[in-house]
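Budget justification note: compute hours in this period were largely spent on complex prediction jobs such as the one shown. Inputs:
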Amino acid sequence: MTPETLYATLGALLFGIGLYGAIVRRLVLRKLIAVNVMISGVFLTFIAPGGRGEGPPDPVAQAIVLTGIVVTLGGTALGLALIRRAHAIRHGPGPSGRNPADGAPGDRGGFG
Amino acid sequence: MTWAVILPLAGALLSVLLARHAARIALGTVLATLAVDAALARAVALGGPIEHQVGGWPPPLGIRLVADGPAVLFLLLAGVVYLASTAYAARFFDRPNGARSGSPVGPGRFESAVGPASSASAVGRAGAIPHVPATRTSPRTPAGFWPVWLFLLAALDGLFLTSDLFNMYVALELLTLAGVALVAMTHDRAGTQAAIRYLLVAMVASLFFLLGISLLYAEFGVLDLEGLGEAIAPGRITAVAIPLVLLGLAVKLAIFPFHFWLPPAYGATLTPVCAVLSALAIKGPFFVLIRLVPGPFAAVIPPAIGTLIGGLALGGIVWGSLRALQQPRLKLLIAYSSVAQVGYLFLALSLALADPTGPALRGGIFFALSHGLAKAAMFLAAGAIIRSFGHDRIADLRAPQRGSHLATTALALAAVGLMGFPASGGFIGKWLIGEAAALAGRPLALAGIVGGGLLAALYLFRVLRQAFVAPDPAAGVVRAPAALEWPAFLLAVLSVLLGVASAPVLGLLP
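Corresponding output:
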């Protein structure tokens, strides 16, 4: 197995694990983490063929993955902010204005 | 050409710095952007497509921007819908209408209350004292609304101009992030949950798209559409990559059966946001599809995928219409109608695959433009009527013209466009798609187009008939502010005029 196929297979595997988690997990926080695992898989498939041949690695692939990381960071941050807010709406903010770190799954408490 | 992207971005940043004047900055930015779009459209109509290499870097490292007929038409659509919605949103927020109860809860009180929670309130029931419900007052402008509002426009304009696969991914992501943030601006439970679901679905969909792109790039080493069109060849990698790309876009476009995230997101959020999301945001992935499917992908898509797309399209038309028929609430009815209308776009794509030189693609693009105008008009008109009644239960919206003549007229005109009455923009779009179906010998597609129009008439008349029933004297109806009526009315008039004056638009299409 060439390193190229190894990385591509790993990337596909990560994508699959993440997709499984994003569908099966019930807590949205875990879904969000699963989506991040998927993203790592995609980046791996982008980078893997970049190192082929003897020349320098493909700069376009690297630029793409860097941009992708920034975009992902934005999406993940927005997701975390929304999850925190959903939690605050359900349970009310904690004493210091912060939320407790974890919510019990299936908790259907009312507002505040 | 880059100004169409730079202006909204600059406006967004400026509206962060000068938050007090954000609404005026937004309006000015949108006007300037529309002027740029119009100048670009004129140049393209006179001299053909225009190309620009960002920063002077040629592909493969640089990104090529291309303004051709479809691109400038979608830019103009975005500009017009944004102008109307921005004027609407500027009045929508923050000004009292009648008695303004101070809203200590925060900005979300308004139409977020038009969720399941408010169904129990006996507004306007006979015997109840008509009080002014929360939905009658303007909500406060949510923090950060105007910058995100303009970011969405920048993402759209970037998407319509780019000719680079990865750049398309970035623009789609920006579109999603801005859209999710706008949906979440209600700050209530329904809005936040809808936004989280929207975000997760859209991120997963983007990743399918991106994985497909990464495979194509690994195989062919190009991201520019023109280069890809020359390099692409059938093979194992292509056979995996293209379904991944199409699946990602289909989910983002909310095609049946991937539409489940759309109605909650539109039903829960603020009216101006509904208007731009339904009219423009779902046109983003559609635009990518019309760039890819008749473009670089045309030679390598197996016919089975075209048939599958057509089947899903018909399913979407039927299912979305049936669900719209059952909705008790006006905003959800319009949202499900979007699911049905997306079916037409996919039907056009499927027919364009079967016959690339036929009228299907022109029809699809024309339908998308007319749907954008009509759907935005419909949401804005619905918002004005909701403001005057204080709720959006269709059964209790008796004689909506008492609240607003103009908004009711706008609703009717937009409905004419959506049903596809002759001479409206929707009619010409559907006619072209139907012509393609007849030419390709697809009776089922033809039946879907006609039947979908009938179903649309059924669910839209559920709303329109309310204009002809006796008003409920106990319902406390407030007149809707004129600044909420006029944008809806003008957009609705445009959606009909698009059909009357279709020649210049069709002249810009391939």
